[in-house]
Amino acid sequence: MRLLIQLTLLVSLHDALAYSLSTRSMLVLPTDVVRKRVHHPVICAADDEMTWQEEIERVLSPGTTSSDREVLMRDLLGRGSEIAGEISQAIGAGDLKSLVPPSTEGARVLNDLESVKR
Predict the structure, then answer these.
(1) Cα–Cα distance between 84 and 18 in angstroms, integer?
(2) How far is CA 35 from the centre of its chain?
(3) Which of 33, 62, 80, 105 would give a disulfide with 17, using CB separation of 3.0 to 4.6 Å?
(4) Do the record's keywords include Signal (predicted)?
(5) Count of Cβ atoms closer than 10 Å to residue 104 Cβ
(6) For the chain, what is the largest distance between any 2 Cα atoms, rounded to a whole number of angstroms?
């Protein structure tokens, strides 16, 4: 179910990005805005960049604040072409599991579902 929600969100993000590109109103978060958000160290001051899958999990998490969701959504919109490319490759290869990195909550859910199927 969570993977379905993630894929639905990805399709919506892709559509929003396509619209913003067609109207030339691209939503991009300026780096100075990100630097000012020092009171949210997990998102703004992280040493390593989150994958788009991790960002989607953060957006869906009930513990994420609305301001953090806004930053994450803007970043996801900016990464639309990367996301669309990875999804296209996974669908072409017939391996949707490759969309879920092993260290995420989504991977744990998929492993649990496979255990139940057995």
Answers:
(1) 11
(2) 20
(3) 80
(4) yes
(5) 17
(6) 50
Domain boundaries, the chain: 2-110
Task: Tell me the C-alpha to C-alpha distance, in Å, between residue 106 and each of 32, 89, 102, 103, 114.
Answer: 32, 19, 8, 8, 12
Record the tokens describing residue 101, joined without a space: 């990195």
* pLDDT of the chain, 118 residues: tens digit per residue: 666 676 676 666 666 655 555 555 444 444 444 444 444 444 554 556 888 988 998 998 899 999 999 999 999 999 999 999 999 998 899 887 788 877 777 788 878 888 888 7
Give the position of tokens 């999804």. Answer: 87
3-state secondary structure of 3: helix
